[in-house]
Every structure is written in structure tokens, then in C-alpha cells.
Amino acid sequence: MSFPESPAKASICCEEIEGAPPTYAMYEALKDSCQNNASYFQPDDSENGQRLYQGFITLIDHIDTVWPLVDKVRKIAPSYDFDGKSPGNGYRSFVSVVDSCVLHGLKLSRQVCSGRDALLFRKGYFVKEVESCSQLLASLGTCLHHLHTLISWAPPGDLFPIESHSPEELFSRADTINQYCFYGRCLGFQFAPSIRGILKGISICMAGFSEAYYSHGNLISSVWTGGQYLIDPELRARRIVNISQSASVEFCKAFWFLTESEIMRRVPSLMSTTVAVNKLITITPEPLVVSTLDGKEKTILPPASHIGLHDLNVRLISVNKRNGMTNETSSLPPADGIIFHCHGGGFVAQSSKSHESYLRDWAAKLNVPILSVDYSLAPQAPFPRASEEVFYAYCWLLNNMKEIGTTGKRIVFAGDSAGANLLAGCILRILECGIRVPDGLFMAYAPLLVSFIPSPSRLLCLMDPLLPFGFMMRCLKAYASPNSKGKEDKRTNKELTSSNATTPVDGNGFLKVSTSQEAISEGPSSFEEVSPSDLAELQAHKSGSERRKSSDTTISAASLQSEHTATGVSPTEDKSQQYVSDFLDRYVFDSDTDSEGRRFPIVKPNQSNREGESETSSTLVGEPPLIVDDGKDKKRIKSRLSEAATGIMGAMSSRFAYMTDSNSISGPTQEEMAVRSNLDSLIARSPSDEFMFCVPRDPMLSPYWADEKVLQKFPPLRILTVHMDPCLDDCVMFAKKLKRLGNQVEIDVLEGLPHGFLNLSLMAKEANDGSLQCIERLKELLDLENKACTSDNHL
């Protein structure tokens, strides 16, 4: 009997399709194949032969355990869907994950069966593959136990429990989950085949990057070790799980900011759609006066929470130059529509530039300008700073339609991940202020309940290569809980070792968090009514603020910067990007010219003794603390820059010594030693008490908590998400809530794609197809005809 290739489709995993074999037959086929192989290898006295025998017997046992558990979830999963046309929820996703594992095991078992008599049959290879698959099925069985607990906590049809239940309570009800199996040989088994290779490459890069980050910036060493992560999946799995549990948010920021490096910055211009306008617009922080729906005027203060007054950058992308657009002269009239966009990145990383790859294509196919906001990032600028800036940028847009090249007839919000969350919160602010509401909202894989309420889809982050559990929690803490204890991530070695000492030997560790508590967000609101005294105080602050650049002036229009003439780094831009770019540009790569006059990067020679080196230069080395001592930091950076510029022989010697001797590093801090020890450990340790923090129940932070009377005023909504998204249940429950209130809402759930797939649209066909579906939903909200661009669409 033939079965489909992995992964199994979540949209049909819970229904019996006419003409297709029943799902139970797939599990029985795996058992039969495993029994056949077990009988074959039982007489084999070799070590690998006996391990293969035991591996197949263990697989049979796990199938018998998992089947009744998954069958119960399979039967109830359809009742949690948004509607019959859009099947999708966390329970359905987990059923498809288990089915995908069974399909993977069936394919593997049949490969063994067909090749075991061959002279060159690789027993050692298949031993590891079979054992990995067995561990994978065992871990999924534990996840299914957790799902059964979640079912008992929530009423039928609800994906979130009504009563307060913490993840700690959930995880205490079943055995711990072995996460290593999700990041080793079976990495990406639940995704489309074209995505698996990309995810594997990203995982290898993450593991190798951690070597550079925690080994004093030695990129040669990280490349050397990256080869090990390529050929040794078990080593890679151990490193990634330990990174997820031990690395701080600064590591997450630094790794994600690799997409902002100079090399990656050039990719969109080389591979994406060509656009005529791609400019940064700097909005100076001054009060804005906007008209309300009842004809009155309202003054909007610039954002000032946490980091004070700062310029705000927005990026304008358009396939055509239009009359009036940033002082452009063109025969084309302004467009009727405009896309107001916010990028994702976990609230802590990335920018409009890193999302330019798909924004260019959107601008071309929609033939309308796109204005993307480069909001400030946590932890330097936690909630509500980014939310305030997005609202402020929208108010600026309302007053500058002509400069953006639009009449503003149709304004549509569009955002992915964290950006979608910020746009939903922005609409709440708009409704509260009584100004013009956008004509539509498009959200891609949006986190809409920023809280610790457990749900089935959130368990998917335990196996997500792009959004591991630890990464997600650290980003959440950095953005939503800035006043929590230990927010500067300056843990001492004593704290780390004492935390680890209390960890069970077999514990994989989960975040210990308190239940969600209501709290009032700090910082001034950027849309309050202001008095004349407030304006006077603001003006005085503007003139005397040391945070402002000396060149700032109080002008009413925005200052414009082209992509090639923008000067320096924005004050609100995170320093992690500088660490990466400075290191690559100044200490690793140089450039030369080939015979055709083209410049190409080369490795710089040893510059450790270069005179006149700036002691304040930053590199991607070690873990940058949020608050540092200037003298010590300068010495540390200078020392690390010297190490980073060592030659290839020195790097390989260092790596050889590391592999053959101990993990000691010359001159590290106690904190770095503790983190390095965690990253190289054989057992994943539990996170320390730094994860016990409270998240305010604020609708601006979690739009799902907004008052129903306010939600009824939301514009038409289109949500696009994926079955393997940890935020899937947020999207489904939010859509259900709006539908119940009578709002116009539709949801699409795509197969085989990960959270953040839009950033992969240039690398995988499935991801590009998902981006095209986003365009179709945006066309609906823009009220555009589904047709090719008109004849005026020229460059």
C-alpha cells in the first residue's frame, strides 16, 4: 500500500478522504515493516545488528503507545477550527506532526528492508537514523499527554483554558520532553522538503555563530566547527537546544541581525523585484496635529517612554515614482492605496531592510507605495515604546499623504509576527483617539496573546528551528517585562551553578513563570491630550535634550535619506547590528578589484598590532552587557579585537586545543565561562529564576484582551498563518472572537511552512507561493481588481 510523502497535511489529517488509505493503516504498515526488520536483524550478533533489532522493537512499542493518544486528539481537533473552509488549530497541527513522524519512520524502515542485503549496506548509519526516529516518536508521545491535559482545561472549541494554568503546571503532569531529537537527524521533518534544507542550513549557522559569539569572535574557528555541525547532527542538536536554554536575548538579536549585514543587504537589490523608490524618511520628534472623525483637532505627542525623544525612520518603497512623492517629479498621479507595514523580529531584532525581499514584490504586484516603520527594539526600548512609535508614524502618514505618493483613499495595515501585533495595538490606539481608522488589516502569523497561557500550538516551539522555546521567552521578557528582576541578563557564575544544581539529572527544563497578572504599563501615552504647558515643556526638552543629534532641527517636513546616502546608525537602532557589521567590515573582510573592475570581499591580514586602533570599536565578540563600565569594556573590546584578527593557523591551533583538551578560554569572564559550559553540556539545564516574571494584561500588548465593544469597530481583517506556527492558536482564537462579534474576518492556514516564512520567499517556492497569497489578501483589502498591473506600471 502506498502512502504520501512526509509531511502529512494538517488540513486533512483529521478527516477520512475517499479513496485514500485509512490513517490507522499507515501506523499498522509501519509496525509490520518494523517487525519484518526486527526479525531479520535478531540473529545478527554484531553490535549494530543488535542495535537495529532493538531500535525497531522500540519503534513498535512507541507506535502502540502513541496511536490511542493521537487518535483521541484526531477525533476532537476539527471542532477547534475557525470554520470548515479554514481547517487549522494546534491540535490538528500536532496530529499532522505525529503522522509526519510515522511517514518518516515508514520510509526509513522500507529503505532498510530494501537495502539490508546489499554488500555496502551501512548499518552504522541506519542505527542512528532508526534510534533518532524512535526518540522522536517517544517525545511526541509525551507532547500528546500534554495535549490531553490542555483538552481537560478548556471548554470544547476553546484553545485557551478558562482558568489560570501555568506552563510549569502543564509540564509537571507528564515526563519531560527530549528536545534533542527535534534538532538532530530529524530536523524539519514536519516541514515541506524544500524548507528542510533551508532550516538545516540556518541551524548550522546558528550553532557555528554561537562559537564566534562566545569564543571571542573567532570566525575561522566557527567555520571549522560549522563543518562538524554539518556532519554530526547529534552535536548540532545538543548545541541548539543548549543555545535555546542558555543564550541571552543579546545573542538572539546578534544572530537575527546577520540579515542586516552588508552582504545580506545587497541580496534584495540583486534578486528581488526592481523598484524605483526605496528611501528612508526620518521623522523628527515633534507634536503632530491630526483631525478626528468628528472634525476636531487632536495633538499627538512624539514617543518619549524609556529612551526619550528620538528620530523615527520609515522606509518608502514604490515600484513607480509618482508626482509629489518625496519631491519627485513624475507624470504618474498619486496612487489611491497605501500599505502601512510593520516588520517582525520578536520585538528585538530586524528592520524594514531585512524584510525588503518580499516588500519589493508586494509593491510591484500591488502597484501602491509601502511605508514600513523601523520602530525601536527591546530590550533597550521595551513596551510600550514600539507601539507608541507605530501610532506616531501613522499619524505622520495622515498628514503627509502627498509626500508618500498616495491620495490615501484606501489605507491598509500589513504586518508579520511582532509587526502584526503592533499594528493591532495601533488600531486600538486609533479607535481610542477617534481618528481615521484604516480600511483593512492584514496579519501574518501574529502573536496576539502575549502571555503564558498554554495552548497546543505553543508547544510547537519546543521543536521549531526558527523560534525555539527559549528564544521566544527571552524576546517576550525583553519586550513585555522590562522591570523584571535580572532584566540586564547579568547573571553570575554562582547564580548559574546554583540553578543548575537544583535541576534533575534527566530534566530537560521548562520556563518557570508566574501566572499572568494585570498590571499598568509605565511610560507616558503618546496620544494624550496635551495642554499649552505640556507643549512648552516638550519644546524645552527638545532644545536641551542630549539624546538628540546636534543636527536635529524643528522642521515640519521629514528629512529624506536615500538608501545610499543615509548617514550612520539611527540612535534607536540596536547596537547588535553594529557589532556584526563592524566586525565583518573592519576585522574580517576587505575588498579588492577583479579584472573586470568588480569589487569582491577578501580576508584581511593580521591587524592585531595596528596602531591607532580605536578602543571604542565594537565587534561581534562575547556577550555585550546592557550596562558596562567604560574602562573595563574598552580593555575587553580591544583584547577581543586582537583575538578576532588572528590568522588561520592560530585559529585552527586554538580549535585543535579546544577539541583535545579543555573548554578553557584565555581571559573570559566568569559569566562567559558559565554560559560556555552550558552550551557545551551534555544535559540541557533548566532555566534559572530569571524567567519568573509577570506580563501585564494590557490590550495594547495583547490585543486579544481588548474590550469587545472596541473589537467590534475593527476594520475588515485578513489573517494568514501556518499550521506549524507556535502563534497559530492566537490567530484562530482572535479570528473566532471577531467573527462572533460580527466583524469581517477571514483566515488562511498554509501547509509545510514555518513561522517567518516571508523572509524565505526568495529561497523556497512554497514560501514564495505563501507571499503571493498574502498579495491576494492585500488586494481584497485594497479593493483592487485581481488583474495585472496597468500600462502605467513602468520604471
Automatic annotation (TrEMBL):
Which species expresses this protein natively?
Answer: Leptosia nina
User: Which GO BP terms sit in this record?
Assistant: cholesterol metabolic process; triglyceride catabolic process
Which SUPFAM superfamilies does the record match to this protein? alpha/beta-Hydrolases
Region ranges (Disordered): 482-510, 538-577, 594-629
Q: Where is the composition biased (Polar residues)?
A: 495-505, 552-570, 605-620
**Domain Hormone-sensitive lipase N-terminal residue range list:** 26-325
The protein's GO terms of the molecular function aspect are: sterol ester esterase activity; triacylglycerol lipase activity
Query: What name has this protein been given in UniProt?
Result: Hormone-sensitive lipase
Coiled coil (residue ranges):
none
